[in-house]
TrEMBL record:
Domain Flagellar basal body rod protein N-terminal: 13-39
Alphabetical keyword list: Bacterial flagellum, Cell projection, Cilium, Flagellum
Listed name of the protein: Flagellar hook-basal body protein
Pfam families listed in its UniProt record: Flg_bb_rod, Flg_bbr_C, LlgE_F_G_D1
GO biological process terms on file: bacterial-type flagellum-dependent swarming motility
Lineage of origin: Bacteria, Bacillati, Bacillota, Bacilli, Bacillales
Entry GO terms, CC: bacterial-type flagellum basal body
Keyword Coiled coil carried by entry: no
Originating organism: Salicibibacter cibi
Residues in Flagellar basal-body/hook protein C-terminal domain copies: 234-278
Flagellar hook protein FlgE/F/G-like D1 domain span: 108-173
Length: 279
């Protein structure tokens, strides 16, 4: 029986480490509840390997038995997957011309980073000078990543631009201070058919893995569409899709389970100490 107790202690210890990782995930969600376009993460658990411990040397003829003979002892539970949940977040009006809220789940703004193409749901963009003294600008995220179209081309904004308008057909137009307007191009959004393939890069950015290594055709995963009025709202931002009440409930469940396994280790240790004192 001491072997079984040690196995049960090991099972609880392994499960506690996995519960701690899940609590870290929940804490990260709660810390980013006010981050624009943040996509919450959710852990899934699965049982680890179980082993059969037989307590009878000779099998008994129990034809009507519905449970395995002996004791099944497992090695605990582990996190099988940490998945991004692409639920639509609430849309908050800002009345700022360069704020764009995505109104459809599963679509992203394509941006160019130092590491290549990436995707984000944070639609707050700013003007950044392309070359000092060139009097031309480009649209960038708050981290400086450049907003592009589906072909990877940035939007070139003239220095005289004073305001911006997104037409219902997805055309982005800049109003000039001297009068008139300049067409910057069509604002496009990226549609990811298999969003669970996306890898988090930090700063609300995601990238696709090496699709060739996965034997996946890029055309089957990634597509670009002109941002229509039903997909993008100007003058607004999408908030995070984190539900504080749900996260608090999940955190309490993880903490209670953690405490239960901690008590199990303590009780098994006390029982082993009692057995050893009787010898």
């Amino acid at each position: 029986m001491s072997k079984i107790r040690r196995t049960m202690m090991l099972s609880s210890a392994v499960t506690m480490s996995q519960l701690q990782q899940s609590m870290d995930t929940i804490s990260n969600n709660m810390a980013n509840i006010n981050r624009t376009g943040y996509q919450r993460r959710e852990d899934s658990f699965s049982d680890l390997l179980f082993q059969q411990t037989d307590h009878q040397r000779v099998s008994q003829p129990e034809g009507n038995r519905l449970t395995p003979e002996g004791i099944r002892v497992g090695n605990g539970a582990g996190i099988s997957q940490t998945a991004l949940r692409y639920d639509q977040g609430a849309v908050q009006e800002t009345e700022r011309a360069l704020d764009f809220a995505l109104a459809e789940a599963g679509v992203f703004f394509p941006v160019q980073t130092e590491d290549g193409q990436a995707f984000t749901r944070d639609g707050a963009f700013y003007l950044s000078e392309t070359v000092p003294g060139a009097d031309t600008w480009q649209l960038v995220t708050r981290e400086g990543d450049v907003l592009t179209n589906g072909d990877g081309e940035p939007f070139v904004v003239p220095g005289q631009a004073s305001d911006f308008t997104l037409d219902p057909d997805g055309t982005l137009v800049a109003d000039l201070m001297e009068g008139g307007s300049a067409t910057l191009g069509e604002l496009e959004v990226a549609t990811i058919e298999r969003p669970q393939l996306l890898e988090a890069m930090g700063n609300n950015l995601f990238q696709l893995p090496d699709l060739a290594a996965l034997d996946v055709d890029e055309a089957d995963v990634l597509g670009f569409d002109v941002a229509g009025a039903d997909q993008v709202t100007q003058g607004a931002l999408e908030q995070s899709n984190v539900d504080m009440a749900m996260e608090m409930t999940n955190l309490m469940e993880m903490q209670r389970s953690y405490g239960m396994h901690a008590r199990n280790i303590t009780q098994q240790d006390e029982m082993m100490g009692l057995v050893n004192s009787l010898r």
